[in-house]
């Protein structure tokens, strides 16, 4: 493992376990572009890549609330609180999950966002 890979792996290991959006990771002391380092760590089996992300709720939780609202709008999901002012992110996620259960095309739509 390269020194950059080691440093990034340690940083990620120290964080709360879970999924992270690559675009939200920033460790300038390691590199200004973490993508190749992350890809290498995935390839070497130290990290899981987006192909292992199979749970819809887990995927939706990675998406920012404004992006979820756009998704609700593009999927034409009608719900009192989904994507509306005053509605919570959880309300929006619940509406999308419910819609996905009915439509049976859940994760493929979301993977296009990443």
Automatic annotation (TrEMBL):
<dbReference type="GO" id="GO:0036297">
    <property type="term" value="P:interstrand cross-link repair"/>
</dbReference>
<dbReference type="GO" id="GO:0017108">
    <property type="term" value="F:5'-flap endonuclease activity"/>
</dbReference>
<keyword id="KW-0464">Manganese</keyword>
<dbReference type="GO" id="GO:0004528">
    <property type="term" value="F:phosphodiesterase I activity"/>
</dbReference>
<dbReference type="GO" id="GO:0005634">
    <property type="term" value="C:nucleus"/>
</dbReference>
<keyword id="KW-0234">DNA repair</keyword>
<dbReference type="InterPro" id="IPR033315">
    <property type="entry name" value="Fan1-like"/>
</dbReference>
<dbReference type="GO" id="GO:0070336">
    <property type="term" value="F:flap-structured DNA binding"/>
</dbReference>
<keyword id="KW-0378">Hydrolase</keyword>
<dbReference type="GO" id="GO:0046872">
    <property type="term" value="F:metal ion binding"/>
</dbReference>
<comment type="function">
    <text>Nuclease required for the repair of DNA interstrand cross-links (ICL). Acts as a 5'-3' exonuclease that anchors at a cut end of DNA and cleaves DNA successively at every third nucleotide, allowing to excise an ICL from one strand through flanking incisions.</text>
</comment>
<dbReference type="GO" id="GO:0008409">
    <property type="term" value="F:5'-3' exonuclease activity"/>
</dbReference>
<keyword id="KW-0227">DNA damage</keyword>
<keyword id="KW-0479">Metal-binding</keyword>
<protein>
    <recommendedName>
        <fullName>Fanconi-associated nuclease</fullName>
        <ecNumber>3.1.4.1</ecNumber>
    </recommendedName>
</protein>
<keyword id="KW-0460">Magnesium</keyword>
<keyword id="KW-0540">Nuclease</keyword>
<comment type="similarity">
    <text>Belongs to the FAN1 family.</text>
</comment>
<keyword id="KW-0539">Nucleus</keyword>
């Amino acid at each position: 493992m390269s020194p950059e890979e080691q440093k990034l792996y340690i940083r990620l290991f120290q964080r709360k376990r879970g999924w992270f959006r690559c675009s939200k990771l920033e460790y300038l002391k390691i590199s200004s572009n973490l993508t190749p380092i992350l890809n290498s760590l995935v390839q070497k089996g130290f990290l899981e890549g987006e192909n292992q992300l199979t749970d819809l709720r887990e995927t939706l939780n990675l998406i920012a609330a404004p992006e979820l609202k756009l998704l609700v709008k593009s999927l034409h999901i009608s719900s009192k609180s989904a994507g509306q002012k005053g509605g919570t992110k959880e309300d929006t996620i619940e509406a999308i999950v419910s819609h996905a259960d009915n439509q049976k095309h859940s994760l493929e739509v979301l993977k296009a966002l990443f």
